[in-house]
Amino acid sequence: MPELPEVETVRRGLAPVLEGLRIEAVELRRADLRFPFPERFAERLTGARVLRLERRAKYLLAPLDTGEVWAAHLGMTGRFSVTAEGRVARPGDFYYAAPPDPRHTHVAFDIEAGARVEYNDVRRFGYMELIPADGLAAHALFKGLGPEPLGPDFTAAHLARAFEGRIQSVKATLLDQRVVAGLGNIYVCEALFRAGISPLRPAGDVSRRKLGPLVAAVRAVLEASLEVGGSSLRDYAGADGAKGGFQNAFLVYDREGEPCLREGCRGVVARTVQAGRSSFHCPVCQR
DNA sequence: CCCACGACCTGTGGGC
DNA sequence: TGCCCACAGGTCGTGG
Fold it and tell me: CB of residue A105 closer than 7 A to nucleic acid strand B?
């Protein structure tokens, strides 16, 4: 799934065709994704003007002139594409490496000025909500979220508080959206590698002096990925150019059995399973 | 409250 | 070639 850099890349791709424009029609092709769509979803969106397109954690948020906010989470396989006249008009965002299978296009939005925005989601782990703007912060999906990792509240002091006394692994702790909001499996693995911290270490045992470097590593990895449009796994040759490129910069993720890329380290990347998910790390230089 | 694990859903790739 | 299992970017609910 899209983690923060991928969701932000999607946001940047969609913003120009949504912001300030009216939703003229909504075609809903099924009653649910991960959860049922909100009551009267299509009617509540039809005619609404999108004021802005924002992101919080891994959610896309579109405040509307109706007083509601349209929120979308992409789950593991959610993709937005923008088409006009039957062709992809804005290739290049995350996910556009191969055209989506139309059988899994579940919602389509016709936008003023002619764009058509389609939501495709093979596994249907994504979901959409309509939330009153004045109740957004208090909504169950948002009230417990931790700080944005690229924002001012994500600091070593914050991590020190969050890690204190925690016996859960630092890997699982960083995946917890209440601790920091927006990281997923790839970027946690990559950040821990860069900070020289083993994903297996209990969060409470991470040395305090490593917390500053960890914060810096998280930021650096996210920023580097954003620069190249996020990560695209399972790419296909011949894609349109601007698909995500960070998969080419992975230092540990999906590199089991390959040599550690840290200068001078002779380690070999190991794969372990934590909380049911693959972790990749170098047992020699990550402690 | 904290933590581990199964569940949700479909597709793909590797091993036999 | 075909089949079966493991695994995939997330997170929610359950049960210890």
Answer: no
